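Practice set, problem 2.
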Amino acid sequence: MLGRIVFQLWQLFLVGVVMIVVVLLFADILNDVAMFLEIMAPVYPICFTMTVSTSNLAKCIVSVAGGATRAALTVHQARRNNMADVSAKDSSQETLVNLAGLLVSLLMLPLVSGCPGFSLGCFFFLTALHIYANYRAVRSLVMETLNEGRLRLVLKHYLQRGEVLDPTAANRMEPLWTGFWPAPSLSLGVPLHRLVSSVFELQQLVEGHQEPYLLCWDQSRNQVQVVLNQKAGPKTVLRAATHGLMLGALQGDGPLPAELEELRNQVRAGPKKESWVIVKETHQVLDMLFPKFLKGLQDAGWKTEKHQLEVDEWRATWLLSPEKKVL
């Protein structure tokens, strides 16, 4: 009976830990949780195997997540395309810090070995200090490439005020707590069969624009799916993401340019127009809006030749709509 109660409490604890890990500073918190599980493993012998196995599993996840994060930050810090040099210096500093930590632990070990309560107190204090330091470090980062969160903030500010946020302001406004507020679902690089099931539907999406992407908007679920052409480059992906987020803005609040305000009133009035018709009209609005927005991004210091948008690998080929010639 006692074993079952301990097991249920342990499950609740792990669920809470997973919720925290998903929300904020994944690799750092998960690494601290793994160390805590190793410390607590001898306290509950009945759960020793499960605890140690969970700890090792968490460390494996930390290795993958930490490696991916380190690679992204190394690329960000290699301002002169000197990624190898930055990586070598980072490894040297980490080795030095680990050596210093080993020396400090050797000095503290005789002081805490006979007092488990004091040991746990030191662990929780240092863990809290570690998480806070990493939180401040993440907050101090200024990424100059656009991901979906930063693009959403910059585009919203631009549509409402006509100004483009600079990277410092946008990074400061970007939330670390994600997934708790409703936002349009944007999927880039999806397979073509998700959008169309017939030639007629394909013609509807292709008609009226020459952009190498096809976009489908589900108004009821506020979901945008984008098929990319083989010719689509970073600028096309950025425009497609901007297009999708702009459609999401039609179901939101706040001031919009006159052209988009008219479309938003049509959307709110009811399903009088099919989604593909609204998408076609927003293509025309974006033809005027996106060049100014792109130039504003470049003038504000954003790097538009690359991005951090989540794009799947599916690509398709179709004949672009012929350009209308004005005589």
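Problem 2, part (b): a different protein.
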Amino acid sequence: MTDARVLSIQSHVVHGYVGGKAAIFPLQLLGFDVDAINTVHFSNHSGYGRFGGSKTTADELNTILRHLSSNGMLRPQRLLTGYVAGPDALAVIAETAQKLRSENPGMIYLLDPVMGDGGKIYVAPEVVPIYRSMLPLADIITPNYFEVELLTGIVLSDLSSFQNAIRELHVKFNVPNVVISSVPVTHALLSSIPEPIQASILSDDHTPGVVYAEDALLSITSSRRTSSDDPTPSDVHALLVRRIPGYFSGVGDLFSALVLAHYRPDRPQLADSQNPLSKASSIALSTLHAILVATQKHALALPEDERTETDDELDGVDPTRKVKRMRGRELRLVQEQDLIRAGSSEAWNGPHMVPWSDFW
């Protein structure tokens, strides 16, 4: 993509691949210039147990943004925002997103409302209402299932709850494109997933297989329909991905960057019942899964003391045990960069998200 510039506002670590470190390199590989503002500057991600650094204050963010603007450097074609720890800093980013949107209505904004995972919130609770206020500014949002619950107040447990949450994001918050990632597949949810989606599960060897509850993660895209006369609010696609054992960090950050990179609302008519969001998400999911498979393969080949099982008691006695384990599971972005580049080909023909025609 020629002369396309992304403004990335999210976390930074010196060692490893989370936040901007997981997003910027892939975006550059796919042809984007990236201007990066770091909301935190840490030694490494918190999963190591020991980390340190600084958080960028609201005043510091304003200073950076003011000088970028005065130099004519705040003119991105795309905006990507991720982890922000506190409400004051997030308020500055919300104001910036509003300003950029008013100056360039055609800018594509992907908002990743990073707040928590697995039922645990790891930002200040005061950021939740600010994120809600930012939703109408976004073209695409990429929350995980827990973040959808925080934004909508709806607990995702079955098909009906997903319908209510997605409808609220489209109608109440005016979000045109929603991607919900990494949804654990429960027995209740599995029974509602159509057979064509189950048959297309993405596994380590890219072959279909039997789907078991708790063995797979579900990703859903929902693109709002423009006709007010349409009885259903959106076109929904889904893809099941078989879980890869182990703990990986930066997965959501990489996924959001890949969705933004591959999202082309001006794409010509797509085959196989795809739309621009489902196409971008298909490429992102396939690329991400391949990188995770490669990362897992690398981790399993490490010496035994670098691939220990998680044990809070033993990790507490010897913190280096956890450090070694985390270090061995950093995303293999540099080593597997050809996987990232492959997604940019117009001839890409990997696994596609499957239309969920009777979702509504």
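Answer key, part (b): The longest strand covers residues 33-42. The chain has one domain: 5-355.
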